[in-house]
């Protein structure tokens, strides 16, 4: 199984991880200007077809694929082929990057300055860089960084320039283009812009896919894009998109390239620049439109301390070995290759599976800071913890996390309380420390009179900001936590009952977390293995039994998932109680938010995370997937039809009220 | 009646004698083609009488390619040399071959892997004879033998694993007996008796198969009889009005061509194996000839086929050039690989010997340009009799086979040419590749044609590189099989395989297959980089035939043949994944059987099986090829 090769079962403690180098150290010692102007001679792909950015456009416009689509569109729409070709050319102008070394040098200079202000250190695994250097020469490379901040792609290009690697071309959302000057600067540093949605636009899709493929086939530059499609506002990995992945894999499927190397990159921040911005967005304060002036205002951020940043370049994943035994390439034999072809169902499944695996690799390689552990504990104790028990529990959690394979960057030569106090200092704007009691709270002096609603929102911003750190470690605890909740709600020690519960939860939360479709048995076994190894459980032939010492771990794991369980229940309850027959999709989020807010105000709900629009959207997606809610298109509006019985029973099950309906037991 | 036939026979004899006497004198003038054909053995009057003896081992190697007297070896000075007198290269020193072998494979003179010198007869299992069958055969006066040498000789083709095993002295299952029919009715008798006594028949023509087609199936428990067609080698008649010849199917290519040449004709069918392969073998495997652009492949050349099957004789009732009588029954026969019966007689098209023949070559800056040029030539349908494009590795290989130059002047000229191409024209010696050309026809048209092709080539950056390079290119195909034996003396094993592929996929397929080979070798622990090279050997309207050579130094491997087979398997998978066919002309045999269903669909395979079921329900023709 290729998936095995890609994602070997974890042996957490044994896994050797690469060492990091702080790249800012060198920058702090020598001239940034000289650095920006130094001789840049990147390692090149062995099959490189040398070609200028301007020639690229011609190659794309003349390509058989695009010519074919132009003719097709022209005959369908009745416009002349010249007219359609002109349109294609405009699309390409709007899209194309204009990579220029001088702009890159400008960025190298300014970013050096900025990064030194913002970060204490930027750590990169140099072994990963060496692997990338190798990979770049052999086959065209696709870089797949995680996406948590605008910083991500600036940092990527900066690093590649620094290590004499070819500069990537980056698929960026169109919204950047509206930032007048910056948009053009980004374009000249290798960004190309794609519209956020172009569903049925054949011509757009053809121009776009041909543009990417041409660069890949010619080995023009590494292609960089974000599997998650957009920045994750919650710091949880998002369900990956497969469109671009298909585009970069197709040249291999069709034999145009011998192989393509996919390089997952995990970028983690000790403190995220957009932290409170994201929280506001999740609470429905609309996202400020990207604008240059907005960015200038954001200069304030430059004066703050964002701690350290880690970039981990993962092992290159060969598309050829991924696809071995899964994709029959001869399926492309009977159609000329320039004629666009929708991926078949099996190809689609493959893409989806590959995308999930790649995101999991990103998660696995994400460096976690001690603060992530502290945030987890503080969220579970809304009334605060005194410093000594926080220290004790953090230390306990640290060992648990390590045992589960977390990639934790814990300072070697400091005591636990030193580590904690420096973490607290870095994130002091989320906390209040008084009389040895540490508590999440609004630190800015409460301005004048605030309404109860405003107070809730202020509190929610803090909670969601904090949750974005806890979320970074969720992937470590996720499977054991699902098992813990399943054991709690199964009311039985029987393995298959627990598995059914586990499977139900896993299914329910598969929009919320990265859970590879079809891996449920594997996940279950992994959870059992981890908890067994930790001495929490005994897994017998037919039963799973908690050991005497396991109680605290299980309680902790249950609380990890608690906000999500509660949040989903709130969404369910809302849908059951909502009387509007014609609830539109657009009204859904504000309405749930209102409903939740009222529950909190009434003191019936303590879970502020339920206010997160991300959680609400995911819950809706899950309900749609489970067919408890249907979308009905009426005119321009999409309305939601709720099957109240089904939703109600899901809510009950989430609350652990009735045992799960038995789905057919897969294989255990 | 009798006197009539005897007088025609005498007349024929006189004519033949006349040809024989005339030949030495006008060899240079009458057939320009002959002078150029470095590859065909020099004519030897006696050989036209009994071209292939029953005891093949008298003139041919038992564990290698071709004639016993012709082989590559390193002489006492450590220089490579080609022995014998048959070929243009014979008796010449090849000064750069040794360096090429060392540079390409890391194969040095110190590391020798010699073959077992003689066949160990005791290793041959005693024959499993069907006595009643033998009795009946003897009564029918059919020549037969169960001499171990005869049997071993007919138990293999020229796949790497077959030759490797022989060199190691390993003998597997061999036929229990060899029979030599001399005419169609002999074959009818043999097949009838085989059915009666339930013995397994495996037809044997030239023995040049590279698809494990001649291997005796291990699961076969009956007596296996090799039916050697070599003694059915006469041209039965020639029809000048319709330009056809009726020929017995056991005749081998060079004899057929020589005998037709004597009468002013040729078939124009020249597969690379034509020195040894037989007409019947061509039909049974759907062979392709180098000059198919002028003369066509075997399916275009054949007018009528007679085949003996267990059900009886299959043939058409007339010699009409084309028929609409349902699916062409010839297409059940062509490519049947000996699973349905024995082809005994074939009527095929012949042509007058072309007046003029000219070689040529074009150097391209890289392979892509070369392929683009061939594609354009095919588009304009102006391909010369033969056009082949070698990649850079093969170009260098060709250079390694340059004989010692006799004069300083020639070597000076060579140097000048090289300078012109690499320095003046800026071709990178590690990327340039060469197309070899062969034009045929009347002089005026050849020259005109030549110009047309060179003009197209020029558009793709091609430079004319002389006749000599072209000729050497064609010679390469004939001696490469001998060269493999030299390689095997020094730890190098290799083989060729082929495919056909649509034009737009040629480049991708070539690159991917070559890279796959390199990668698989590395993964399987081959210590030295392999030779992985290809050429485009035929052009068609809708695609091309691509031919790969693959070889590596196996020092340090415990089971080199297994590694070789795994790599070849992977390469074939890669070909299929890149839109290439299972085979262009080598056939399927047993080597590529596993992909038949995928290649022709299960219904297609079922159709073929049902034909086999009807024609040969007892599986008398039990070589188990193809299906």
Automatic annotation (TrEMBL), chain A:
Domain Phospholipid/glycerol acyltransferase: 141-270
Main location (coarse class): membrane
Keyword presence, rRNA-binding: no
Gene Ontology process terms (BP): ether lipid biosynthetic process; fatty acid metabolic process; phospholipid biosynthetic process; triglyceride biosynthetic process
Stretches that traverse the bilayer: 158-179
Subcellular location: Membrane
Keyword Calcium: no
Functional pathway: Phospholipid metabolism
SUPFAM superfamilies cross-referenced by the UniProt entry: Glycerol-3-phosphate (1)-acyltransferase (SSF69593)
GO molecular function: glycerol-3-phosphate O-acyltransferase activity; glycerone-phosphate O-acyltransferase activity
Entries under InterPro entries matching the protein: GPAT/DHAPAT (IPR022284), GPAT/DHAPAT_C (IPR045520), GPAT/DHAPAT_LPLAT (IPR041728), Plipid/glycerol_acylTrfase (IPR002123)
Pfam families listed in its UniProt record: Acyltransferase, GPAT_C
Domain of life: Eukaryota
GO cellular component, as recorded: mitochondrial membrane; peroxisomal membrane
Keyword terms of this UniProt record: Acyltransferase, Membrane, Transferase, Transmembrane, Transmembrane helix
Protein family (similarity comment): Belongs to the GPAT/DAPAT family.
Name of the protein described by the UniProt record: Phospholipid/glycerol acyltransferase domain-containing protein
Automatic annotation (TrEMBL), chain B:
Active site: 547 (proton donor/acceptor)
Binding residues annotated for FAD, in chain numbering: 203-209, 285-288, 337-343
UniProt KW keywords: Acetylation, FAD, Flavoprotein, Lipid biosynthesis, Lipid metabolism, Membrane, Peroxisome, Phosphoprotein, Transferase, Transit peptide
Pfam family membership, one: FAD-oxidase_C
Subcellular location: Peroxisome membrane
Enzyme class name: transferase
Binding site for substrate: 484
Gene Ontology terms: cellular component: peroxisomal membrane
Primary subcellular site in the record, as a coarse category: membrane
Residues marked Important for enzyme activity (site): 388
Description of how the protein assembles with itself and partners: Homodimer.
General function of this protein: Catalyzes the exchange of the acyl chain in acyl-dihydroxyacetonephosphate (acyl-DHAP) for a long chain fatty alcohol, yielding the first ether linked intermediate, i.e. alkyl-dihydroxyacetonephosphate (alkyl-DHAP), in the pathway of ether lipid biosynthesis. Catalyzes the exchange of an acyl for a long-chain alkyl group and the formation of the ether bond in the biosynthesis of ether phospholipids.
Family according to the record: Belongs to the FAD-binding oxidoreductase/transferase type 4 family.
Protein name: Alkylglycerone-phosphate synthase
Organism the protein comes from: Cirrhinus molitorella (mud carp)
Source species taxonomy: Eukaryota, Metazoa, Chordata, Craniata, Vertebrata
């Amino acid at each position: 199984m290729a998936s095995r090769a890609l994602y070997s079962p974890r042996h957490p403690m044994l896994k050797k991880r690469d060492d990091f180098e702080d790249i800012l150290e060198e920058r702090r010692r020598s001239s940034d200007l000289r650095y920006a102007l130094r001789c840049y001679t990147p390692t090149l792909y062995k099959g490189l077809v040398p070609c200028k950015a301007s020639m690229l456009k011609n190659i794309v416009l003349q390509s058989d694929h695009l010519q074919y689509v132009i003719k097709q569109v022209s005959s369908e729409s009745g416009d002349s082929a010249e007219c359609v070709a002109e349109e294609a050319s405009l699309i390409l102008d709007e899209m194309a990057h204009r990579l220029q070394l001088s702009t890159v040098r400008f960025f190298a200079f300014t970013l050096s300055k900025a990064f030194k202000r913002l970060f204490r250190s930027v750590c990169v695994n140099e072994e990963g860089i060496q692997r990338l250097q190798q990979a770049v020469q052999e086959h065209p490379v696709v870089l797949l960084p995680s996406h948590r901040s605008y910083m991500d792609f600036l940092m990527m290009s900066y690093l590649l320039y620094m290590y004499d690697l070819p500069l990537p071309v980056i698929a960026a959302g169109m919204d950047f283009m509206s930032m007048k000057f910056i948009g053009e600067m980004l374009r000249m540093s290798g960004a190309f812009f794609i519209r956020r949605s172009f569903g049925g636009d054949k011509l757009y899709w053809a121009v776009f896919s041909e543009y990417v493929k041409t660069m890949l086939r010619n080995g023009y530059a590494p292609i960089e894009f974000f599997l998650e499609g957009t920045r994750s506002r919650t710091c949880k990995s998002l369900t990956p998109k497969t469109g671009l992945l298909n585009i970069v894999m197709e040249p291999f499927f069709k034999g145009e390239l011998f192989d393509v190397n996919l390089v997952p990159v995990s970028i983690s921040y000790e403190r995220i620049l957009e932290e409170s911005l994201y929280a506001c967005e999740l609470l429905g304060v609309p996202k400020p439109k990207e604008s240059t002036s907005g960015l200038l205002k954001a200069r304030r951020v430059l004066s703050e301390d964002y701690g350290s940043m880690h970039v981990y370049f993962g092992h290159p994943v060969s598309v050829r070995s991924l696809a071995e035994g899964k994709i029959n390439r001869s399926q492309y034999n009977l159609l000329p290759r320039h004629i666009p072809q929708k991926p078949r169902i099996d190809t689609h499944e493959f893409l989806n599976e590959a995308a999930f695996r790649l995101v999991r690799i990103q998660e696995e390689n994400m460096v976690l800071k001690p603060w992530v552990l502290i945030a987890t504990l503080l969220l579970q104790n809304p009334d605060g913890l005194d410093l000594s028990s926080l220290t004790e529990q953090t230390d306990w959690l640290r060992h648990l996390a390590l045992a589960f394979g977390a990639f934790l960057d814990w300072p070697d030569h400091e005591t636990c309380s030193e580590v904690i106090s420096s973490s607290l200092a870095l994130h002091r704007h989320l906390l209040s420390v008084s009389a040895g009691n540490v508590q999440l709270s609004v630190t800015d002096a409460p301005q004048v009179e605030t309404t109860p609603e405003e107070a809730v929102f202020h509190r929610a911003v803090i909670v969601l900001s904090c949750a974005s750190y806890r979320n970074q470690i969720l992937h470590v605890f996720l499977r054991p936590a699902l098992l813990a909740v399943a054991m709690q709600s199964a009311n039985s020690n029987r393995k298959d009952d627990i598995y059914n519960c586990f499977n139900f939860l896993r299914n329910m939360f598969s929009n919320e977390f990265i859970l590879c479709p079809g891996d449920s048995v594997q996940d279950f076994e992994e959870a059992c293995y981890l908890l067994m190894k930790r001495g929490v459980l005994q897994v017998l032939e037919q039963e799973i039994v908690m050991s005497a010492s396991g109680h605290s771990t299980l309680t902790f794991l249950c609380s990890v998932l608690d906000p999500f369980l509660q949040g989903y229940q709130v969404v369910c309850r809302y849908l059951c109680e909502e009387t509007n027959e014609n609830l539109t999709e657009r009204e859904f989020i504000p309405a749930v938010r209102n409903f939740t807010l009222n529950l909190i105000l009434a003191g019936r709900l303590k879970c502020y995370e339920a206010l997160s629009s991300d959680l609400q959207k995911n819950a809706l997606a899950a309900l749609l997937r489970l067919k408890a809610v249907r979308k009905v298109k009426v005119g321009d509006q999409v309305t939601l039809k709720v099957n109240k019985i089904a939703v109600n029973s899901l809510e009950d099950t989430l609350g652990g009220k009735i045992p799960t309906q038995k789905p057919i037991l897969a294989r255990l | 009646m009798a006197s009539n036939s005897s007088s025609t026979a005498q007349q024929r004899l006189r004519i033949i004698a006349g040809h024989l006497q005339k030949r030495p004198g006008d060899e240079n003038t009458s057939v320009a083609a002959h002078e150029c054909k470095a590859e065909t053995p020099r004519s030897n009057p006696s050989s036209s009488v009994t071209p292939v003896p029953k005891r093949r081992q008298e003139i041919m190697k038992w564990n290698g390619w071709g004639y016993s007297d012709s082989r590559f070896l390193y002489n006492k000075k450590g220089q490579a040399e080609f022995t014998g007198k048959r070929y243009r290269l014979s008796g010449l020193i090849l000064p750069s071959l040794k360096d090429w072998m060392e540079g390409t494979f890391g194969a040095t003179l110190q590391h020798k892997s010699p073959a077992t010198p003689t066949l160990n007869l005791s290793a041959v299992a005693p024959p499993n004879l069907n006595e009643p069958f033998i009795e009946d055969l003897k009564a029918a006066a059919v020549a037969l033998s169960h001499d171990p040498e005869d049997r071993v000789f007919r138990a293999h083709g020229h796949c790497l694993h077959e030759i490797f095993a022989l060199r190691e002295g390993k003998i597997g299952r061999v036929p229990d007996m060899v029979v030599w029919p001399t005419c169609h009715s002999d074959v009818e008798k043999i097949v009838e008796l085989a059915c009666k006594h339930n013995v397994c028949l495996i037809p044997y023509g030239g023995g040049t198969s590279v698809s494990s087609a001649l291997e005796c199936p291990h699961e076969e428990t009956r007596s296996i009889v090799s039916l050697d067609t070599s003694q059915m080698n006469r041209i039965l008649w020639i029809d000048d009005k319709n330009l056809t010849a009726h020929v017995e199917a056991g005749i081998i290519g060079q004899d057929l061509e020589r005998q037709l040449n004597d009468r002013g004709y040729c078939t124009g069918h020249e597969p690379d194996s034509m020195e040894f392969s037989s007409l019947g073998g061509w039909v049974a495997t759907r062979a392709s000839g180098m000059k198919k652009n002028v003369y066509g492949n075997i399916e275009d050349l054949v007018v009528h086929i007679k085949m003996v099957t267990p059900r009886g004789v299959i043939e058409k009732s007339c010699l009409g050039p084309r028929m609409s009588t349902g699916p062409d029954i010839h297409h059940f026969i062509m490519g049947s690989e000996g699973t349905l019966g024995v082809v005994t007689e074939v009527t095929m098209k012949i042509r007058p010997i072309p007046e003029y023949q000219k070689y040529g070559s074009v150097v391209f800056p890289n392979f892509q340009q070369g392929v683009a040029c061939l594609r354009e030539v095919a588009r304009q349908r102006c391909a010369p009799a033969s056009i082949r494009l070698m990649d850079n590795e093969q170009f260098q290989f060709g250079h390694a086979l340059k004989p010692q130059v006799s004069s300083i002047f020639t070597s000076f000229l060579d140097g000048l040419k090289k300078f012109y191409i690499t320095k003046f024209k800026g071709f990178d010696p590690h990327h340039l590749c060469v197309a070899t050309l062969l034009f045929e026809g009347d002089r005026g048209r050849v020259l005109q044609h030549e110009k047309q092709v060179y003009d197209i080539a020029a558009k793709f950056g091609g430079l004319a590189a002389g006749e000599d390079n072209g000729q050497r290119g064609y010679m390469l195909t004939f001696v490469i099989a001998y060269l493999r034996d030299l390689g095997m003396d020094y730890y190098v094993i290799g083989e060729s395989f082929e495919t056909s592929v649509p034009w737009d996929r040629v480049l991708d397929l070539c690159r991917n297959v070559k890279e796959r080979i390199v990668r698989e070798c590395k993964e399987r622990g081959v210590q030295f980089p392999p030779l992985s090279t290809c050429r485009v050997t035929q052009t068609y309207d809708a695609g091309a035939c691509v031919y790969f050579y693959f070889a590596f130094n196996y020092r340090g491997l415990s089971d080199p043949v297994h590694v070789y087979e795994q790599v070849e398997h992977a390469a074939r998978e890669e070909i299929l994944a890149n839109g290439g066919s299972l085979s262009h002309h080598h056939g399927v045999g047993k080597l590529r059987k596993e992909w038949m269903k995928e290649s022709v669909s299960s219904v297609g395979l079922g159709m073929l099986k049902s034909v086999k079921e009807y024609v040969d329900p007892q599986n008398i023709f039990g070589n188990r090829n193809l299906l």
